Each structure stands twice: as C-alpha cells, then as structure tokens.
Amino acid sequence: MNYKFFKMKILILFISLLCYSNYLTAQKIYAVDYANQADVKVFVVKYENQADLSVYKVKYANQAGDNNGKWFFTEYANQADKKIFFVDYENQADLKIYFVNYENQAGWNKSSKKAMMYR
User: Fold this and answer.
1) pTM to 2 decimals?
2) Residue 118 lies in a domain
3) pLDDT tens across 40-70, in order?
4) How far is CA 45 from the centre of its chain?
5) In what helix (H) or strand (E) does residue 6 lie, and over which residues does it extend?
6) How many domains does the chain have?
7) Where would I find the beta strands (DSSP E) of 1-119?
8) Is-contact 106 61, C-beta < 8 A?
C-alpha cells in the first residue's frame, strides 16, 4: 500500500470522526422568548430529586457535554443545538431540570427523557 495514500486516508477518517462527534455531543442551548420557538419546554424545579435532568452551566462552548447535563448557553439562536423555553408551570414542561453547582453533579435522573435533548 502506498504510504501517502494511507496517511491521507487516516487524516480524512480523523477529520470525519471529529466533525461527527461534535455533531452528536454538543449541548449548546439558547433560551427563546416564546414557547412556539422552542424545541423543548423546560421547567426549573426546586429540588434535584424532582428533576429529569440535573444541569450544570459551563462557561465555554467547548466544555459543553454529550447530552450529560453540561449546557452552554449561546448568545444567538443559530449557534445552538437546542432551543428551550422556560415555562411558568410544571405541567407545561416537556423536561424538568435542576441547576447544580458542581460539574460532577450534572446528569440524567430519568433516562426516558434523554432522547429529546439529542440533536
């Protein structure tokens, strides 16, 4: 096998995997102003045991998790993977979340809701 061809093939594979993994894993969120603009309606609960998902807000986009509760809030809607709307009442929500103080506390409490946060 030609060494240059093999090297190029590996490079293309690496770039493809890098792009594909970013597509699947980013949890970049934008909070919209109206419910009809949202992909998911969210209610913030008072206690962690009431939540479907425990969310940790990261400071930078590259810290966003792979659907594991680490969210980065974008400045513009077109930068986000999911648009959410914060509802006033629990019964209006698709997803109940609780904001945690530490990164290691983030994660799903009810895995049945996990699919709604995939891209």
Assistant:
1) 0.76
2) no
3) 999 999 999 999 999 999 999 988 878 999 9
4) 18
5) helix 3-25
6) 1
7) 28-31, 40-44, 53-57, 70-73, 82-86, 95-99, 107-108
8) no
